[in-house]
Design goal:
The chain has 110 residues and is of the alpha+beta class. Helix content is 46%, strand content 13%. The chain has helices at residues 4-25, 62-66, 82-95, 97-106, and strands at 29-34, 39-44, 57-58. The protein has a three-stranded antiparallel beta sheet, covered by helices on one side. A hairpin with a 4-residue loop joins strand 1 and strand 2. Helix 1 (4-25) packs antiparallel against helix 3, helix 1 (4-25) crosses helix 4 and helix 3 packs across helix 4. The relative contact order is 0.23. The model has no long low-confidence stretch (mean pLDDT 91).
Protein backbone atom coordinates (compact mmCIF):
# COMPACT_ATOMS: atom_id res chain seq x y z
CA UNK A 1 0.00 0.00 0.00
CA UNK A 2 1.27 3.48 -0.87
CA UNK A 3 1.93 5.86 1.96
CA UNK A 4 -0.36 8.73 2.90
CA UNK A 5 1.88 11.37 1.28
CA UNK A 6 1.91 9.57 -2.10
CA UNK A 7 -1.86 9.14 -1.98
CA UNK A 8 -2.39 12.81 -1.14
CA UNK A 9 -0.07 13.85 -4.00
CA UNK A 10 -2.12 11.66 -6.33
CA UNK A 11 -5.29 13.42 -5.17
CA UNK A 12 -3.75 16.87 -5.70
CA UNK A 13 -2.60 16.06 -9.25
CA UNK A 14 -5.80 14.34 -10.35
CA UNK A 15 -8.06 17.01 -8.84
CA UNK A 16 -6.01 19.82 -10.42
CA UNK A 17 -6.16 18.12 -13.83
CA UNK A 18 -9.92 17.64 -13.48
CA UNK A 19 -10.47 21.30 -12.53
CA UNK A 20 -8.47 22.57 -15.49
CA UNK A 21 -10.34 20.25 -17.85
CA UNK A 22 -13.62 21.52 -16.37
CA UNK A 23 -12.59 25.14 -16.95
CA UNK A 24 -11.48 24.43 -20.53
CA UNK A 25 -14.25 22.03 -21.59
CA UNK A 26 -17.08 22.63 -19.11
CA UNK A 27 -17.33 18.88 -18.49
CA UNK A 28 -17.82 17.79 -14.87
CA UNK A 29 -15.73 14.95 -13.49
CA UNK A 30 -15.79 12.65 -10.50
CA UNK A 31 -12.53 12.09 -8.60
CA UNK A 32 -12.35 8.78 -6.76
CA UNK A 33 -9.78 6.44 -5.28
CA UNK A 34 -8.76 3.34 -7.23
CA UNK A 35 -8.02 0.79 -4.53
CA UNK A 36 -6.24 -1.61 -6.89
CA UNK A 37 -3.93 1.06 -8.28
CA UNK A 38 -3.62 2.88 -4.95
CA UNK A 39 -4.14 6.23 -6.66
CA UNK A 40 -6.83 8.73 -7.48
CA UNK A 41 -8.52 8.73 -10.87
CA UNK A 42 -11.13 10.90 -12.52
CA UNK A 43 -13.87 10.21 -14.99
CA UNK A 44 -16.26 12.40 -16.91
CA UNK A 45 -19.85 12.49 -15.69
CA UNK A 46 -23.01 13.51 -17.52
CA UNK A 47 -24.31 17.05 -17.10
CA UNK A 48 -27.37 15.80 -15.25
CA UNK A 49 -25.34 13.79 -12.72
CA UNK A 50 -25.90 14.97 -9.16
CA UNK A 51 -22.83 15.81 -7.08
CA UNK A 52 -24.25 13.43 -4.47
CA UNK A 53 -23.84 10.56 -6.96
CA UNK A 54 -20.07 11.15 -7.11
CA UNK A 55 -17.18 10.48 -4.76
CA UNK A 56 -15.77 14.00 -5.26
CA UNK A 57 -17.57 16.00 -7.91
CA UNK A 58 -15.55 18.56 -9.86
CA UNK A 59 -17.81 21.28 -11.15
CA UNK A 60 -18.38 25.00 -10.92
CA UNK A 61 -18.02 25.07 -7.14
CA UNK A 62 -14.35 23.97 -7.21
CA UNK A 63 -13.09 27.41 -5.99
CA UNK A 64 -14.85 26.92 -2.65
CA UNK A 65 -12.71 23.82 -2.06
CA UNK A 66 -9.41 25.12 -3.45
CA UNK A 67 -9.63 28.73 -2.27
CA UNK A 68 -8.29 31.88 -3.93
CA UNK A 69 -5.39 31.45 -6.34
CA UNK A 70 -2.71 33.85 -7.52
CA UNK A 71 -3.25 33.10 -11.20
CA UNK A 72 -6.18 33.62 -13.58
CA UNK A 73 -8.88 30.97 -13.36
CA UNK A 74 -11.15 32.35 -16.07
CA UNK A 75 -10.58 30.90 -19.53
CA UNK A 76 -11.42 34.29 -21.05
CA UNK A 77 -8.63 36.05 -19.13
CA UNK A 78 -5.78 36.97 -21.51
CA UNK A 79 -3.17 35.52 -19.13
CA UNK A 80 -5.01 32.25 -18.48
CA UNK A 81 -2.68 29.26 -18.82
CA UNK A 82 -3.38 25.64 -17.93
CA UNK A 83 -0.02 24.64 -16.43
CA UNK A 84 0.33 27.57 -14.00
CA UNK A 85 -3.26 26.95 -12.89
CA UNK A 86 -2.57 23.25 -12.30
CA UNK A 87 0.54 24.10 -10.29
CA UNK A 88 -1.38 26.68 -8.22
CA UNK A 89 -4.17 24.21 -7.43
CA UNK A 90 -1.69 21.47 -6.48
CA UNK A 91 0.18 23.91 -4.25
CA UNK A 92 -3.06 25.04 -2.56
CA UNK A 93 -4.20 21.45 -1.95
CA UNK A 94 -0.81 20.39 -0.59
CA UNK A 95 -1.05 23.14 2.03
CA UNK A 96 -4.74 22.61 2.78
CA UNK A 97 -5.76 20.63 5.83
CA UNK A 98 -9.16 20.18 4.18
CA UNK A 99 -7.54 18.81 1.00
CA UNK A 100 -5.42 16.37 3.00
CA UNK A 101 -8.43 15.28 5.03
CA UNK A 102 -10.52 14.78 1.88
CA UNK A 103 -7.86 12.60 0.26
CA UNK A 104 -7.66 10.49 3.45
CA UNK A 105 -11.43 10.01 3.57
CA UNK A 106 -11.75 9.13 -0.13
CA UNK A 107 -8.82 6.71 0.11
CA UNK A 108 -10.38 4.96 3.10
CA UNK A 109 -7.64 6.06 5.48
CA UNK A 110 -10.11 7.61 7.88
Amino acid sequence: MKNEKDIHESFCRVYADAVVRFIVTGINEDVSFDEAGQQFVSREVDDDTSPAACEWWVGSDWPTFVGPLSCPTDLAHPKFAEEPLKRAIIHALRKSATGRRMSQILAGQD
